[in-house]
């Protein structure tokens, strides 16, 4: 079975309900084996927007990385996410990012296509990703940087 690490975020409407709906929606794609606590965080990039509620989840799935990403985008749409015409990095009901993906052979997938980059190219720079992910998968290794999620988080906190 493949295992994926997914970041969840919301800052529009009932954020907790959106994250709960996302976790339930991911359950249709396989088996959610862990969900972190929810963390309230400040926006990054586009700052003129409400704070976010963020979390991370682990999902066992038979879907390929590309099919999983397509399904995650559909869950976003089901929860009111409109990407067309939206402010980049702006307010959103739901944001689901595929962070890491380990295939059934236990190998971390590294890929760079027009529609998907794995591991997520910014995850190691984002506290709102590393903190919740570290809670449920601190020993997962970033396949490009060769550091665990916990090590990446510690390094990021040291830089602040």
Keywords summarizing the entry:
160 residues; Alpha-Beta Plaits; two-stranded antiparallel sheet; 7 strands; globular
Percentage beta strand: 25-35%
- Given as residue ranges, the uncertain stretches (5+ residues, pLDDT < 50) are none
Overall pLDDT score: 95
Number of helices: 4
Using only CA atoms, what is the Rg?
15 Å
The CATH homologous superfamily corresponds to 7,8-Dihydro-6-hydroxymethylpterin-pyrophosphokinase HPPK
Helical percent range?
25-40%
* Broad shape: globular
List the domain count as a whole number.
1
Biggest sheet overview? 5 strands, antiparallel
Q: Would you give the CATH topology?
A: Alpha-Beta Plaits
Give the termini distance in whole angstroms. Answer: 37 Å
* CATH class category: Alpha Beta
The SS-based structural class is: alpha+beta
């Amino acid at each position: 079975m493949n295992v994926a690490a997914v970041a969840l975020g919301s800052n529009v409407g009932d954020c907790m309900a959106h994250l709960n709906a996302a976790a339930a929606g991911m359950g249709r794609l396989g088996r959610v084996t862990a969900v972190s606590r929810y963390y309230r965080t400040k926006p990054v990039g586009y700052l003129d927007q409400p704070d976010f509620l963020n979390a991370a989840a682990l999902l066992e799935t038979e879907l390929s990385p590309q099919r999983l990403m397509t399904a995650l985008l559909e869950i976003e749409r089901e929860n009111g996410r409109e990407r067309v015409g939206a402010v980049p990095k702006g307010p959103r009901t739901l944001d689901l990012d595929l962070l890491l993906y380990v295939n059934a052979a236990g190998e971390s997938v590294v890929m760079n296509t027009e529609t998907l980059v794995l591991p997520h190219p910014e995850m190691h720079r984002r506290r709102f990703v590393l903190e919740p992910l570290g809670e449920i998968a601190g020993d997962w290794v970033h396949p490009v940087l060769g550091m665990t999620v916990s090590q990446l988080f510690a390094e990021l906190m040291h830089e602040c």
